[in-house]
Amino acid sequence: MRTTWIWALFAALAGTAARAGGAAPEAVRLSGVDAGLCVVLGCADAGSLAGLAEGRSLLIHCIIPDRAAAAAARRSIEARGLYGQVAIDQAGLDPLPYADDAATLVIVDDLPKALAAGLSLREVIRILCPGGVACLKGDVPASVEPLARVERKKGWCLLRKPRPVAMDEWTHRAYDASGNCVSRDAALRPLGGLRWIAGPAWPMGTGYQVSNGGLLSAGTRVFSVTLNEVSNAARVPQTRNQTWFLTARDAFNGLLLWSRPIERRMLHDGQELGNAVVATADRLYAAIGTELVELDPATGRTLATVFRDVPADARLAHAGGLLVLAEAKGLRAADAITGQPRWKHPSNAQELVADGGRVFFTTNRQAALVCLDLASGTQQWRADLSAISGKKRELLFAKGGIVVFVWERDWQVGDNGIAVFAADDGRRLWSLDYKSSRATWPDTVWFADGLVWHRTGATGLAGLDPLAGQAKKQVSLVGGYCGGCMRNIATEQYLIGTRPLSFFNWSDGAAHTFRGGRHPCRAGVIVANGLLYTQPHGCKCVKEALRGFIAFAPGGDTSPQAGERLERGPAFGLRAEARTTNGSEWPTFRHDPMRSGATPVAVPVELSKLWEVQVDDQRLPPAPLADEWRANPLGGDRLTAPVVAGGTVFVALPDAHRVVALDAATGARRWSYTAGGRVDVPPTIDQGLCLFGSHDGWVHCLRAADGQLVWRYRAAPRERRIVAFGQVESLWPMTGGVLVENGMAYCVAGRSVAADGGIHGLALRPQTGEVLWSKPLPAALSDLLVSDGDALRMAGGASGGLRISPKTGEPLRDGASPGFNWEFAGKLKTLWGGSNPVLDRTWRVLSVNDTASHWMRIRQGYGPHFSHLLVAAPDGKRVFGFRFRYVHWSKVNDPTTEFGGELVAWEGGKEAWRVEVPGPFQVEALALAGGVLFAAGPNDRLRREPGGKLWALSAKDGTRLREWPPAAPPAADGLAAAEGRLYLATHDGKLACFGQP
Question: What is the pLDDT of residues 195-212, one digit of tens each?
Answer without folding.
Answer: 999 999 888 877 656 788
